[in-house]
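Appendix B, record 7
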Amino acid sequence: MTEDNKDERAETGAVEGNGPESPASEAKAPEPVKQPEPVKQPEPAKAPEPPVAPAAGAVTGDPATRGAAKSPARAAKAEARAGKAAAKAAKAEAQREAAAKKPGKKLKAEAGVALPAASASPASEGATPVKNPRAARKIAKAIAAGTAGVASIALLGAVAAGGTAAPRSAGGQLAAVAAEVPAGDSLSVCPAAPRLLAGAGDGTDAQFRPESSTATTVFRGLTLSDPNGRMPASGVQSLDGKTLQGLTKASPKTDEGVPGLPDLKVAAIPSRTPSGPEVLRVGTLDGKDSTGAAALSYRAADGDLRGLAAVTCQAPSSDQWLVGASTLVGRTSVLNLSNPSTTPATVNLELYGDKGQIKAPGSRGLSIGAGQSRSLVLAGLAPQQAALAVHVSSTGGPVTATVQQSVLRGLTPGGVDYLGPTGQPGTRQVVPGVSLKGSAAAAKLGSGFEDAEPTLALAVPGAQDAVVQVRVYGKSGQQALDKGVVNAPAGTVTQVPLSGLPDGEYTIAVSSDVSVTAAVRATRGTTAKDPSDFAWVPASAPLSTSQVMAVPVGGTSRLQFGAPSGRAEISYRAITADGAIQPAAKATLAAGTTASVEIPAKAGGSDVVGYLLSASGEPAYAAVVQTEDKGPGLSVLSVPVTGSGLDKLPVRLGH
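Structure tokens (predicted):
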């Protein structure tokens, strides 16, 4: 054995446990662990130095070594030598097995530890051999002990993060570890059909009676393939997971790629009568997320729930906001909570009214079993509120939340709608899909018709008052507003009238100095004796490069786009009931404008059931506005946020 090897063996013997040497650890050496590539320090490497001969009697328990490790001056030298020590780690590893077999030279290797080399001694710099090899070895052992301690800390961090040591980049530094979240089924949860409230049972739990005989409710769902045209398994289920209607089976795995544009395919359920809350479940494909979308639409020509109501079916969430519920006399607001998971959920509600936050008994710790739903009458929690904001948070299983709201003025129906979640609180909110008609006439109807006027509702959940600027963009650009700047008190819901706007289609942008959330109430109906209808329009996120949505059944529907901050291009491709994706059309929006296009009933000889949307340029927003062919019916659907890799697929505008 060479002198160099002996010296390395003596030095590396100082690495015991997770830090400085421990005599107790010499009793038995553990099985050797293969070292990963050593960490290289950024300081420049120096020329190799002559080996240091081992001194007799140098053992791992030498008190002088511990003294050297504790000396501030030598500790500084030890840190400086750490980079050089790493350079010969591979060579030191080759000696581990031999060293472990001899008393006093046992090693306990740590994964990721760079063992020091003999030439790391400061006394060996230059061409002259060291005269005191024993002192040099003491310093080298201190270096080894310090290096092992640092590496052990790094190892523990890597194990805590992912169970394995972190990979190293080409430069020798620890590379970032990407933690992949397992893909899960895509869920679009639709609420039950609107129902008449018969009264309250235990506490605020709702009891219902049948709606009018002319009421119809239609579920519509879509499933998209991957870029190679392979379909995931999908179908309609009840909340508890029972299959109600199959849609697609999972395609077999293939490695064949499709060059150019993706070869997307669609499967659709054009029309289904739901039996209660239902779920469109779209499974994963080869461990990757898949995409689906669903919508629920309701219409009735008579009865207390006369009008249109439609909602985009939601993915479950543990945090959501609903803005606009009313609990005044003649207004009924029922919060519907659904838990489609296999884990029980505990739900807490925070309620905000026009006077501040409402501390309501029975609003916290609400239990919803796995695969169950629960309906709560909001008037029992927060009575006499003209506009109520509800923050729904859950632990355990994530839930979906909607508010079924209806208005009855004496014996005259005032409309029905679903309130879906609006945007999370932030300093900027955009509400697309605002469609006004007869606003000036509605403002003159007098007492009892205050909520017939179009209104912006602003909820301020924090402890600081908000100064909010409201901008309204129509087809020809920005429109003047009577109250362009609003002071909104903290912890309240502030209503901003929009009755001064002429009839038309608008996108409303809100900017605030503190976080707020928002929604807009649009109305139809201009006389006190005739039925009317309304729709609450939520704030939404901008369109991505590709999103899919289902459109409601019946009436006349329009895609409404807004580009509040700059020029945008939007491509929209109709999806038909036969599973075809039609050629794309394109809308170009100037900065600060709103545009709309009518959705045809058919395309290519088949019913239009949805749209594939794509946007480029400045942020663009979209919604679907549905109206009755005859009558005041009105509803608005938001575009669901795509939770898969669909938005990364290339979609050519105008193709």
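Remarks on this record: The longest strand covers residues 504-524. The helical segments are 3-12, 63-70, 72-87, 89-94, 96-100, 133-162, 439-443.
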